[in-house]
Amino acid sequence: MNRRALLVSAVAVAALGGIGASYILNNKHVTESLAVGGPFKLIGVDGQEVTEAALKGKYSLFFFGFTFCPDACPTALNTFTLVLEKLGPDAAKIQPVFVSIDPERDTPQVLKEYLSSFDPRIMGLTGTPETVADAAKKFRAYYAKQGEGEFYLMDHSTAIIVMNPDFEYAGVLAGNMQPDEMVTRLKDIFAHGA
């Protein structure tokens, strides 16, 4: 099989996996028995510990990525920025959270500098390899290091997990949603709780 066919096959499998994950994470009967989210201890861009307690009272939107990411992460953060603008006063109801899955490179200072290109309301979190792995597991986020040397990449899922103001699972947004579509879905979550 040539490289092009392998690439097309890989993209198809990834797309089906994303659709499957979205279906599973938005299916109430399934998620009642599947825990999504939970307590965590990570480090904010100021170097201070952050736990789930800091997020109670708002809908939090979790995206797991890394600062050296060439496409999905800056796209998701730009979408967060546009969604916050489009929500107007309703933006006060949400807290976007970017969790680095690359703590080896993404120190609090690196994360702070990276996030300065996006809306300042986006919270950046990092941690030790162990605390990041624990948080990713709880939020059903996949990631794996790809390659060696200084220019390695991180393969990762792109779903955005939504937690309600009581820090309970409220739904999932596809990472490739357009801002208007995401705003509509969030307003539906605000209105119906899921």
Provide the spatial order of strands within the biggest beta sheet.
2-1-5-4-3-8-9
Structural class computed from helices and strand pairing? alpha+beta
CATH architecture: 3-Layer(aba) Sandwich
Q: What oligomeric state do the depicted chains represent?
A: single chain
Radius of gyration: 16 Å
| Parts with pLDDT < 50 across at least 5 consecutive residues | 1-24, 27-31
Q: What fraction strand?
A: 15-25%
- Separate helix tally: 6
Number of strands: 9
Please give the CATH class: Alpha Beta
- Percentage of residues in helical conformation: 25-40%
Count of individual domains = 1
Series of secondary-structure elements, N-terminal to C-terminal? HHEEEHEHEHEEEEH
Sheet bearing the most strands, described?
7 strands, mixed
For the structure shown, list the relevant keywords:
194 residues, alpha+beta, Glutaredoxin, seven-stranded mixed β-sheet, two-stranded antiparallel sheet, disordered N terminus
Architecture overview:
This protein is of the alpha+beta class and 194 residues long. The protein has one domain (36-192): Glutaredoxin, CATH 3.40.30.10. Helices cover 39% and strands 22% of the residues. The chain contains 6 helices and 9 strands. It has helices at residues 3-26, 28-31, 72-87, 108-115, 129-138, 179-192; strands at residues 41-44, 49-51, 59-65, 94-100, 123-126, 143-146, 153-156, 160-163, 169-173. The protein has a 7-stranded mixed sheet with strand order 2-1-5-4-3-8-9. Strands 6-7 form a two-stranded antiparallel sheet. A hairpin with a 6-residue loop joins strand 6 (143-146) and strand 7 (153-156). The longest helix has 24 residues, at 3-26. It is globular.
